[in-house]
Amino acid sequence: MRYRPLGRTGINVSPYALGALMFATSIGNPDPADSVRVIHKALDAGINFVDTADVYGDSEEIVGDALKGRRDDVVLATKFGRPTSTDPNSQGASRRWITTAVENSLRRLRTDHIDLYQLHRPDPATDIEETLSALSDLIRAGKVRAIGSSAMPASDIVEAQWVADRRGLERFHTEQPPYSLLTRGIEREVLPTARRHGMGTLVWGPFAQGLLTGRVRKGQPNQLRRAGLLHHLTDEHRLDVVERFIALAAEAGLPLTHLAMAFTITHPGVTSAIIGPRTMAHLDDLLTGLDVTLTDELLDRIDEIVPPGTDVGTLDQAYAPPPLRTPHLRRRPVEERAAAI
Question: Is 56 a catalytic residue?
């Protein structure tokens, strides 16, 4: 395993990070003992980076169980900020919630510190100085080693770095954006911005939430598509592009999953890519692709299918700023519009 520096933190991590979403019994593997075995197999293979979140069901508890006796060998990352209940204050990036959320995660993870504590999604309702101030206090208290953001637009990354510098606060050391063969928009601004500020980049969704596993095919029935659980699985344009990648992978003599993972960790701005195996078989398949290296010719072919810096469709879990989701935030009041006529 060739480890990579996590930005300028001094921490070294594996190019594959083990995502723990699928270890939650309500979401993925219903057998916690099997999930523990999968985690141990990943650690034995040299993966030393584990990423979870407080909203992933009982994932943190299962990860905590798996790391008993092995905690010091693992760079442990978790996230906060997304709603954990109907309480409007049990979410976001306020000092009030951060100080509560970190204690909850520490208890579930059965550890006295978190190596990387990440804001799960931007919180426009909270001043970034408030957030960084609270996170800085956690670092000084020894409860957190480094802090990061997730799905932040490049402009927000710059603002956070500026505020940290001007106010003498800890800065975000990492960013966790979506990135895959189908989702390359971060190549335009987010990756260059993160590199300019010395941030590590932990990317999620290398399989485009299932589209790049080869199990979702155009014109073929699929349980998720029939259930209508994820909109992007029914996006015909995305499915057309996936078919082109399936053909390219076959031509290169590679499973589609190996092509997808090798692509994500090839970019010099990417530190690590999150894999989310649910079973031992899923993990074994991904581990066999660790040594796959893509040639320049193959990368050129990929660029012809999806040009650099572009996205094909939109992931269901992609972050959208509030004005894109809420009409009244992008429209002047009716009275004001009428008075202007």
Answer: yes
